[in-house]
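User: Please fill in residues for this 333-position structure.
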């Protein structure tokens, strides 16, 4: 679990607080909170360790309970759209409309002479939102914003990099159980998908191969020797899972190519703790043949040298992409 507090002044951000707290793999499974007490305890530990005083918290979701659709609607006034959107959503959301929380943003008002507008529709199962909001409240904080992982990653990227409108860029955030993919084209989001594949698959493969505990396999995955096993012993196992990961990403890219008029992906930007898996970048580079870089979500964010260790920030940077993207957001913005 990660906590980031930023302060904004004149469009620039300064890092105020930062914490990373281990979370039991049983606490959250495939994005669903299975043991809220473990999550609340982790939030308390983060608050104590960082000394954060702000009450307002943001969080984000991903996975099967999140539905994102880009839809065409007749052009209309904002007040009419708010009345119409629920009826439109019922055509696209595979859940009972009463069981979801809805939000939307107008992407384009439509060109003169065209009668349609493009709207991005987001729906999340109400009980999942309630679960995430509840643990923040139980920890004594105020949940003011719930976002979607894929869009938080985009916020972090846009705040730290100049988006090239001539390139198709895939933002690939590799978490423990879910990988978020957000493809940008012409400077805006064009396609998104969550894959149920992440760092846990690497850990479980090491557990099976070497008969290790979860914690031992996690250490070995990060390149630390465990008992008689070294990083070199783990290499073939990790590379095999990396190839599976590449195949899953390839399926998403193929679907994007088949359903979009945009060109192929020109560049891949990785983030998430799983992206730090040894040799994963090289496996992806060989599979896709495009430039691959690691997202630095603190690239343009200021901080006082005495407050944070530069090497530590660099080592955990890719893990912070979602939390930095959330800290950039404003409630209602």
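Assistant: Residues filled in for all 333 positions:
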């Amino acid at each position: 679990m990660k906590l980031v507090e930023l302060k904004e002044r004149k469009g620039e951000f300064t890092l105020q607080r930062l914490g990373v707290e281990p979370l039991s793999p049983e606490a959250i499974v495939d994005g669903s909170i299975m043991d809220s007490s473990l999550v609340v305890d982790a939030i308390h530990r983060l608050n104590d360790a960082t000394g954060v005083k702000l009450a307002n918290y943001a969080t984000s979701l991903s996975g099967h309970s999140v539905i994102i659709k880009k839809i065409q609607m007749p052009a209309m006034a904002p007040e009419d759209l708010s009345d119409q959107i629920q009826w439109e959503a019922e055509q696209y959301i595979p859940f009972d409309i009463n069981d979801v929380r809805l939000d939307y943003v107008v992407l384009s008002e439509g060109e003169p002479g065209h009668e349609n507008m493009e709207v991005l529709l987001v729906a999340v199962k109400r009980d999942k939102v309630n679960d995430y909001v509840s643990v923040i409240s139980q920890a004594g904080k105020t949940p003011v914003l719930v976002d979607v992982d894929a869009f938080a990653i985009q916020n972090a990227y846009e705040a730290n990099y100049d988006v090239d409108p001539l390139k198709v860029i895939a933002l690939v955030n590799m978490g423990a159980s879910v990988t978020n993919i957000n493809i940008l084209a012409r400077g805006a989001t064009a396609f998104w998908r969550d894959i149920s594949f992440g760092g846990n698959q690497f850990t479980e493969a090491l557990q099976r191969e070497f008969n290790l505990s979860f914690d031992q396999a996690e250490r070995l995955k990060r390149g630390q020797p465990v008992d008689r096993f070294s990083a070199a012993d783990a290499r073939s196992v990790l590379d095999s899972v990396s190839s599976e990961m590449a195949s899953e990403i390839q399926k998403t890219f193929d679907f994007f190519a088949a359903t979009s008029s945009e060109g192929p992906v020109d560049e891949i930007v990785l983030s998430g703790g799983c992206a730090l898996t040894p040799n994963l970048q090289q496996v992806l580079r060989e599979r896709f043949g495009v430039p691959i870089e690691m997202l630095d979500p603190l690239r343009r964010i200021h901080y006082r040298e005495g407050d944070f260790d530069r090497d530590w920030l660099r080592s955990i940077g890719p893990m912070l992409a979602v939390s930095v993207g959330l800290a950039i957001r404003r409630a209602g913005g």
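For context: The two ends are 24 Å apart (CA to CA).
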